[in-house]
Amino acid sequence: MTAKSDIEEGTAFAPKFDADGLVTCVATDVATGDVLMVAHMNKDALAKTIATGEAWFYSRSRRALWKKGESSGHVLRVTEMRVDCDQDAVWIRVEPQGPGACHTGRRSCFYRAVPLGRAGAATLEFRDAEKTFDPKATYGKN
User: How far separated are the first and last CA of the chain, in Å rounded?
Assistant: First the structure.
């Protein structure tokens, strides 16, 4: 087998981190299949997620490792982790341990839609955008 076929067809877990040492991670609700958030993991976040069964990420803006829910208490318990064919993206199926995954107070970070089939500048449309918790009360700011 070639290295490419080992990565695509083998059983060795060999995540392909980008130039910044990160891999993209998509988190979906195990019960509904809804996409809750997309974030990034470095080697430490990936290792902690595997070891603890709770989602850890790397914040590019803060340049720091963070456990989802460390401020809010809205932990994401991982029930399954998968890697895509060339191992440059991770998918985690999670059981949310709180009313929302988004720092804006919503269940999901994906609460706006881009209308299709229209020419010109797009205007976002809110979908499933009700707030499920108060981010000011949860985080003390925002």
Answer: 51
